[in-house]
User: What shape does this take?
Amino acid sequence: MRVLWLTKSPSGYASRSGDYNGYGWVSSLERQISSTVTLAVSFVSNDACGPAVKDGVQYFPVPDPYDSGRTSRIRRLFSGNAAQRSWILTSFVKIIKEFRPDVIEVFGSEYPYGLVAEYVDIPVVLHVQGILDACVKGFLPPGMSLFRYCLSGRTLRGIAGKYYHWLNMKRRAADEAEVLKTVNFFIGRTAWDREVVKTCNADASYFKVNEVLRPPFYKMAGTWSPSGRMKIVSTISEAPYKGMDLILRTASLLRSRYGLRFEWKVFGNVDLSFYENFTGVNAEDCGVMAAGVGGAEDIASELVSASVYVHPSYVDNSPNSVCEAQMIGVPVVAAAVGGVPSLVEDGVTGLLAAPGNAEDFAEKIRSLIVDADRAATIAGRGAAEAASRHDVRRIREDMFYVYSQLSPICH
Assistant: This one.
């Protein structure tokens, strides 16, 4: 069976040696699938050197002339994404004619790649990642204006970049709505993303397939051994809906109300000073430190000795950071948003907190820190659930089942 992936990620195109982190779960899934099907990966990138074959997988990079050069964002700020979309879809169609797949799998609705279904007779299945429409609606946390967010760019170029990020997300959300109506087959993993798909496309076929995690989290699965020092870990990104403001407000409460002394390591490309100004909370005073964008090995090592993993996002579908923490065996406190309740059963495999509620987060975190037996019980259940959910053999079989169901459609 011949399968073509269309994705933003270069997956395994880059070297797999040295410090390469595998570009997340897409590359991890590739390692499992490439031995069962004839696989090709086409991705959008201006950094790739050209087509290549590695470990039996064919790679077809698609350069994006509308996303290069210093003036690209300025041009697209006023012109929109139509020309870029047309270029990418035309490029994908050429690759489809060359590779002749039985099934096309598109990763994510965040980009218009799924619209290729309008141009081919081959079954196209969309692998749901985030839901961009929800991210746009929840983009700014309570009390933050778009103006204030944009000013965090500081320089004129930075301010324009922040505004472009928000505007481009709105435009891509419009593309997403079109994609969800166009594609007839979907792969998801949460009750929430299934509901979103069915709401947008009542006739769609939906398959549930869980995700393969990055290798270090399998290697260190179930090795949680908290140190005597209290440590909290979070992995987020710079987008305001990811909850950096909530981390600071929660940490402040844990210090001032409960007198807890801890280190809270935040992995990701966060602008800590901006959120300090926004919340009025000094990160150093309450034990919060920005750890930068960590590799999988670094994050896994920190999780092994962590007291609690906290996921504060205002919007999310199935954050792999939560799954990775559960895989290591760390007790999790996460916001009860989107698809997260499909990953965390409240009081059983983790604790769910009210979205944006620092007091609830602080109380849930405190309850695990002061009650070691409860934390261990929840951690053990979470680890067992994660080991089952992310079993690579089962995921490989589920993916092949989806492909086998779709392949006869094109014959």
The radius of gyration is 21 Å.
